[in-house]
Write a structure and sequence with these properties.
Elements lengths: L1 E4 L3 E4 L6 E2 L12 E6 L6 E6 L6 E5 L1 H4 L9 H6 L8 E8 L9 E2 L5 E4 L4 E4 L11 E2 L23
Antiparallel strand pairs: 1-2, 3-4, 4-5, 5-6, 6-7, 7-8, 7-9, 8-11, 9-10
């Protein structure tokens, strides 16, 4: 299928690549179909692009790259609704915010990660009840912010607005 996007132009995606969010995302409940667009090789960031709205794409990242001790205790209700039968079926990503285009100040929503059942292509944003992380957890320690990837073009992150 062809998907029109405001950031990437027209992209091709297999129907099987579509991830269904039956409950939508908070604030975007009307959007239920997305595709995951990986970043360039070696880039830990990617995009969750809406199939239904060309202007909606969320930057996402693997939280375990930034926080190796991060743990997601998926509530049983969410496990059932996502039909998760084994931990290996779950892909966990976080939505990333880049204030003012400053990649060094990027934060991830570690309190409400996206959980994707890779076998069934079902997903939802899961609210963690017992987590010491926040909705705006800095991804780069202050001393490492200068070494963070540039939002001006490195790794395909030129359109963070």
């Amino acid at each position: 299928m062809q998907i029109n996007t405001s950031r990437f132009g027209v992209i091709e995606a297999d129907d099987e690549a579509v991830i269904s969010f039956p409950w939508g995302l908070p604030g975007f409940e009307h959007l239920r179909r997305f595709v995951l667009l990986p970043g360039e090789k070696g880039n830990v960031f990617g995009w969750l692009q809406s199939v239904e709205s060309e202007t909606i794409a969320f930057p996402v990242a693997d939280p375990f790259v930034f926080f190796p001790g991060y743990f997601v205790d998926i509530p049983e209700r969410d496990e059932r609704e996502l039909s998760l039968e084994a931990p290996s079926q779950a892909l966990v990503l976080v939505i990333v915010s880049v204030p003012g285009g400053n990649t060094g100040g990027a934060t991830g929503n570690l309190l409400a990660p996206l959980v994707i059942n890779t076998a069934r292509r079902l997903a939802r944003q899961v609210i963690l009840n017992s987590s010491s992380f926040t909705t705006r957890q800095p991804l780069f320690p202050a001393e490492n912010q200068a070494a963070a990837p540039s939002a001006a073009g490195e790794g395909g992150l030129a359109c963070w607005s």
